[in-house]
Design a protein that fits this description.
The protein is of the alpha+beta class and 293 residues long. The protein has five helices and 16 strands. The protein has an eight-stranded mixed β-sheet with strand order 2-3-4-1-13-16-15-14.
């Protein structure tokens, strides 16, 4: 099997109501559903204390098949963006990054990287912000189609997440894991400026880091980054989700025989629509949810 499209990104939110409000007010997402976590679903995540926990599902006004899930979770004072292995950021497709930067001025979304063309392509322009739960968001505009790179089109001011950024000890180890477990094709390793990561470690902003864009279904990718040597394991409370970007959900044909954190679940709520799902752990400690399609 290979992984399909990114179906959902889950964020551990210390203030659920505030996060819901800010994503609606500033990023144009709409509230699709809110409720309390089903016990079977929470157990499938390996999160023993989450049954009954409040959560919300938000959707972009463009793509119909992506969801942003916010789960009420304790604050994590030991977490620092880009200082820990795992899911470092979620990359949203946007129509006009410079106009969005103006809109976010003075908002609770903290600017950590102003709009700039990428070091390896002037046809991709992006900015980076921290969301209300300390989650790092890349807001990316594709200005033109790129050769050898499936580039989606933004159908709303802020559309779906099409790339999730994963930090590990090396790009090679991350590629090995996703290729062996899920058949994800290997991708060329390039050196690129990741200023937000350099800034987190006090490195020169123009220092380059190794990364590879691992191709998934429907023009989605996992960006695998080699983290600086000072990176640490992500702090996680027993039975809880990891802080900030806690989990990424992917479509798949059928659940493969893997070591899962709990028994597969089947719930009616979004983004499942009754399909089976299960969660495993990746080589950098990241939570990977598979949803049968």
């Amino acid at each position: 099997m290979t992984l399909g499209a990114i179906a959902a990104v889950t964020i551990a939110s210390p203030d659920l109501d505030r996060s819901i409000d800010l994503y609606q007010r500033y990023l144009d997402y709409r509230l699709a559903h809110r409720g309390t976590l089903d016990g079977a679903l929470a157990r499938s995540w390996g999160t023993s204390v989450l049954p009954g926990r409040a959560y919300a599902v938000l959707a972009p006004r463009g793509s119909a098949d992506f969801r942003l899930r916010l789960v009420q979770s304790p604050a994590a004072p030991d977490y620092r963006p880009f200082r820990h292995f795992g899911w470092n950021a979620a990359e949203f497709l946007v129509q006009d990054v410079d106009a969005l930067a103006v809109r976010l001025q003075g908002s609770p979304f903290e600017l950590i990287g102003p709009p700039a063309d990428l070091s390896f392509s002037d046809q991709i322009r992006a900015m980076q912000v921290l969301g209300p739960s300390g989650e790092a968001l890349y807001l990316t505009q594709i200005k033109a189609k790129l050769p050898d790179f499936a580039t989606p089109t933004a159908d709303a001011r802020v559309d779906r997440v099409f790339i999730t950024i994963l930090g590990g000890r090396s790009v090679a180890s991350l590629q090995d894991f996703y290729n062996a477990r899920f058949g994800v094709p290997r991708a060329p390793i390039i050196d690129a400026v990741i200023s937000v990561m350099s800034n987190a470690y006090g490195l020169p902003p123009q220092q380059k880091h190794q990364l590879a864009a691992l191709p998934l279904g429907e023009a989605c990718y996992i960006e695998a980054d080699t983290m600086p040597a000072a990176a640490q394991e992500r702090p996680v409370r027993a039975g809880e989700l990891p802080p900030a970007i806690a989990m990424v959900s992917f479509r798949c044909g059928k659940l493969p025989p893997l070591e899962y954190l709990g028994p597969p679940a089947s719930v009616a709520e979004e983004p499942y629509a009754g399909k089976r799902s299960a969660v495993c752990r990746g080589s950098a400690g990241e939570l990977i949810e598979l949803i049968e399609s």
